[in-house]
Request: fold
Amino acid sequence: MDCHSDEGLTREAAGDVSLSRMSDQLFLDNDKFHLSVHHLNEISCVDCHSDIEELNYDNEIPHKAHLEPVNCTACHEAEGEAFSQSVHMEIRGKGITMQCYACHGYHYVKRLASASVAERENLFCLKCHNADNYHDWLPQKQAHFAFVECTVCHAPTVPSHIHLNFYDLVTNKFFNGNQIIEALGIGFDEFLPLIDTNKDNIINTNEFEDLLLILRQKNIYTEVHAELVVELEPILHNVIKGGSTNECEKCHSADSPLFDAVAIVLTLEDGSAEHYEVEKDVLNSFSMSSFSALGGTRVKFLDKIGLLVILGGICGAGGHLFIRLVTAPLRRRNKENEQDS
Ligand code: HEC
Ligand code: HEC
Ligand code: HEC
Ligand code: HEC
Ligand code: HEC
Ligand code: HEC
Reply:
């Protein structure tokens, strides 16, 4: 950083006038680098730029101006393997090489777990694809793109789960984890004990409604936003052609496995997130009225109303019969009285 914190440093200034492979700017924003997942995990410059092992400052500076390309898969082998089977690797046949950093960038890579669906799509797929040009079979395209991450459909073997985020109705932004925790006046490790009153390590509908009530008392006016996102597993890189589904029932049915895993997500500043498991039934609760993907269970609710109507009908008819039976002697007596008179 003695050299690379200099904003004016270019390859030419470093004594190299040959055609440069990449940018000529050799500046690195140290503050941003310090927040990257790699720096936080003690990966240093020469772990990536591995053709420099050690620099002798007396006679090796400046080092050669063009280093070998960085090999991300040296450390991320499983991602490389999944990627090598994907449609984005196939395009090498057309003379296009897509590097890992076409999507991730390199010096300022952050953890991804806390990103919303919109952030994930804008950071990645939407940089190159206009999803509006496809998917004419899909009604409410924008609703789907807002709630379902592209890779849930396009890397069909990756597991996924539902994120529940707290959306701030006042600022129109998501609350981050710290804001929620601060409002509750507790620490992150006290969150589950506070909410999970029956101590079974999973938040049920009642506990969930109670949480929203507590938040409202703390002046947090929130709408709970549910998003379908992929698990952060290497296999998500296996974007394949023609593997995605257009079967509505895969998602819109009561027993869809896609909605089995539900979690409240509290996001942290480094891009990671704390997950707290929530019972699937919460998706049908009153506070989730904006979420209608679970068509199947909705119908179950309607079924209950239907059942009530039928029960009501039976009770009505039964009641009528019962009253007629009970009053039969009375009516008979009335008739006899009439005849007598
Ligand atoms: C996670 C891996 C990684 C780490 C850590 C890393 N780099 Fe890089 N760096 C890259 C990649 C990838 C490129 C661009 C493409 C290539 O050279 O392969 C690059 C390019 C550069 C460039 C060329 C200018 C540019 O921005 O494209 C400079 C200068 C540079 N790195 C300096 C550093 C310094 C100094 C550090 C330590 C503070 C560092 N790098 C840490 C991966 C890394
Ligand atoms: C086409 C875009 C794209 C390319 C190219 C790409 N990734 Fe990813 N990567 C993603 C997406 C999308 C995620 C998941 C992030 C999310 O959903 O927020 C991800 C997640 C990750 C993760 C975290 C999840 C895990 O596997 O632990 C790592 C690490 C990663 N990528 C490394 C790589 C490496 C190494 C390469 C090159 C072989 C690469 N990526 C190429 C899009 C890409
Ligand atoms: C010298 C080893 C090394 C190299 C080379 C390397 N990484 Fe990493 N990378 C790591 C480590 C260690 C982590 C933190 C892993 C963890 O804790 O899950 C990480 C984390 C990541 C993550 C964050 C995953 C998450 O949890 O969200 C992404 C994305 C990523 N790397 C992409 C890249 C890309 C792109 C390159 C190439 C420019 C690269 N890495 C090169 C070691 C490396
Ligand atoms: C850096 C640019 C870039 C990014 C980012 C990117 N793609 Fe691609 N993608 C391409 C290119 C180029 C092709 C090949 C198009 C072709 O063959 O005509 C392609 C092909 C595809 C195809 C097959 C389409 C076809 O016509 O064969 C799918 C599906 C796809 N990408 C999905 C995604 C998803 C999902 C993401 C986000 C995780 C993503 N892409 C991110 C550039 C990108
Ligand atoms: C509900 C599932 C679903 C979601 C969400 C989804 N897609 Fe698709 N996508 C499909 C299916 C199925 C096809 C193939 C049918 C077609 O061409 O319309 C397709 C086609 C495509 C194609 C053209 C591939 C080809 O073979 O021609 C691209 C590119 C693409 N999607 C990118 C995206 C991006 C980017 C996103 C996120 C913004 C996204 N998709 C979200 C299911 C989905
Ligand atoms: C990958 C899972 C998935 C697939 C496949 C899928 N959907 Fe959806 N759909 C969702 C999610 C998640 C939402 C957003 C949740 C919400 O708004 O309630 C949604 C929303 C909708 C909405 C809008 C509801 C609203 O209230 O705005 C309609 C209509 C819809 N889907 C119909 C379909 C049809 C028809 C198909 C098949 C052609 C289909 N979906 C395929 C997951 C999916």
Notes: The mean pLDDT is 85. Residues 37-38, 41, 43, 47-48, 70, 72, 74-76, 100-101, 104, 106, 109, 111-113, 232 surround heme C (ligand 3) (CB under 6 Å). Strands lie at 160-168, 173-174, 222-230, 262-267, 273-278.
